[in-house]
Amino acid sequence: MPKSQIDSAAVRELAALLEETGLTEIEYATGEWRVRVARAANGVIHAVPAALPAAPAAASASPAASVPDAAHAGAVLSPMVGTVYMAREPGAPAFVKSGDTVKEGDTLLLIEAMKTYNEVRAPKGGRIARILVSDGDPVEFGAPLLVLE
Predict the structure, then answer these.
(1) How does pLDDT run across 43-83, given as a tens digit for each residue?
(2) CA 124 to chain centre
(3) DSSP string, 15-52
(4) What pTM was estimated for this model as a whole?
(5) Which of these CATH numbers, 3.30.70.120, 2.40.50.100, 3.50.30.10, 1.20.1300.10, describes 62-148?
(6) Alpha helices in the chain (DSSP H)
(7) In the chain, what are the domain boundaries?
(8) Cα–Cα dist 46/102, whole Å
(9) Using CB atoms within 10 A of its CB, is residue 90 exposed (0-12), middle (13-18) or buried (19+)?
(10) Taking residues 10-23, what's their average pLDDT?
C-alpha cells in the first residue's frame, strides 16, 4: 500500500472492535505499516497511521524523569498521539497553569492529531500540581500531560 493511502475499511473494523471489546486503544501492524486507533475520553475515535521504524525513536525520546509522574494517581495521560497546545490560539492565555483549580470537564489543553484539535478535559476536579508538557510538544498515547491533585 502506498504511504499516502489509508485503508479506511481496516480503520473502521478496528474502531468497531474498540466498541465491541470496550478497549480504549487497538494497534494493528502488517509489513511496514502500523495503525493505532484510540478512543479519547470524550468517545471520539482517532486513527493514527505510522511507519514501524518511527515508534522506537519516539519511545527513546521520553525522558526517564516523567515515569514517576505517569504513575501518580492524579496524572492526566494523553488519549492520543499528537501535538500539545496550551491555548486555543497563539497569543491567547493558556487554558490552565500550575496552581489553578479546575472542575471536572474543564478543558486543560488541546492535542492536535491529523489536523483535528481535541480537547483534553479534567477527569475530576482538583488543583493543577504540575504541568509536564509545553506548547508545541509532541506526545505519545499514554504520556503524562499534567498532575491533578
Answers:
(1) 444 454 444 444 444 444 444 344 456 667 888 999 999 99
(2) 18
(3) HHHHHHHT-SEEEEEETTEEEEEEE-TTS-EEEEEEET
(4) 0.55
(5) 2.40.50.100
(6) 8-21, 54-60, 67-71
(7) 8-59, 62-148
(8) 26
(9) exposed
(10) 74
Q: The sheet that has 107-113: what strands, in order across it? A: 116-121, 107-113, 82-85, 138-139
**pLDDT tens column, 76-129:** 999 999 999 999 988 899 999 999 999 999 999 999 988 888 999 999 999 999
Amino acid sitting at position 138: P
What CA–CA distance (Å, rounded) separates 144 from 108? 13
The three cell numbers of residue 91 are 497569543
Report the alpha-carbon angle 81-130-136, nearest 5: 40
Q: What is the pLDDT of residue 133?
A: 93
CB-side neighbour CA atoms (13 Å) of 91:
0
Q: Grid coordinates 496552581 are at which residue? A: 99
Measured distance CA(76)–CA(143) in Å, rounded: 8
